[in-house]
Amino acid sequence: MKTIQVCPSTLRSGFTTYSPQAIKELFDGVMVSPFIDIDFENEHDQRQAMDNMNNMSISGAQEKFSATIDNGKIRLTHESEQATYILKSAPFTLSLSTRKQIPANEHLTMQIASQVYGIRTANNGLCFSNTGQPVYITKRFDVINGVKDGSQEDFATILQMSEEGSDSNFKYHGSYVQIADAIRQFVPAWMPQMEQFFRMVVFDYLFGNEDAHMKNFSLINRNGEYFLAPAYDLINTCIHIQSGSDLGLTDGLSPDIEKSDVYDRTGHPCRLDFERFAERIGVSEKRAAAVLDMFMEIPQTTYSLIEFSFLDEKMKRAYKRVIEERTTRFVRQSE
Prior knowledge:
The chain is of the alpha+beta class. The protein has helices spanning about 20-25, 45-55, 100-115, 155-160, 175-185, 190-205, 260-265, 270-280, 285-295, 300-310, 315-330, and strands at about 65-70, 75, 85-90, 125-130, 135-140, 145, 145-150, 150-155, 220, 225-230. A five-stranded antiparallel beta sheet has the order 2-1-3-5-4, with helices on both faces. It has a three-stranded antiparallel beta sheet with strand order 8-9-10. A two-stranded antiparallel sheet has the order 6-7.
């Protein structure tokens, strides 16, 4: 059985299971084992998991499985049972050599976003199969006390984007300004929500999330009132595969915002580009500066979380290289 030396949720050292904070925030005060009785690498268990996935309505390319807590154990839900958690194993496709590192990558990135940058995220952690393979677990924010509370609508749906013909990449089309304009349109108290969205976009850029597409941002609809959903699916994709684009959407921040000379010359945005983006979406200059100042250098806390993460040593080094390179790009001065 895998030896645990840090909390599989908060990444704080000195714990052989979930810390009290994780038990409170992730499991509503219930003591839960970090070990699960399913091995997603085993063909038989994989088939069982796929049956579970067929009952889910949450979209996405990576396999997701509905789960619940039963007598202190994490298990897959039965048919028609309300899921309170989502499990994400390493992708089943064998074409990606680093696929087994993906759950630990997503967990680390989500923890950095929350702990270091104050981004509101879905509660999350890792659990482990009987072979020691990490499996990402996240608490459903659209289910409260075991009951579905409101509906989640991603921005591909809100903007009425859909697959046309063979274009399965429709969710990557457009720009982040389109999302911002929809937030302003649908969210009554949009200003604080817009600042949170702005922080998420800057974070995605600096932490190499080149998969920040339309379906990875959502609104929660509760009784006809919309709220920006907590961040989810945050991952440093660059340590697995390079998409060739710094940002997840084809039109970037916005095709209508003048690029800095740095962006125009190198193809990579710098702080000035995000300042112009903030102005365009209605974040005040003062509030935008406060957000951007947080990203001018990498805090030691970020490095500590990387070291305590469940990535292997090679991937930890790759993770650091990506964020250091992105930060160097970000702080460049435009002429």
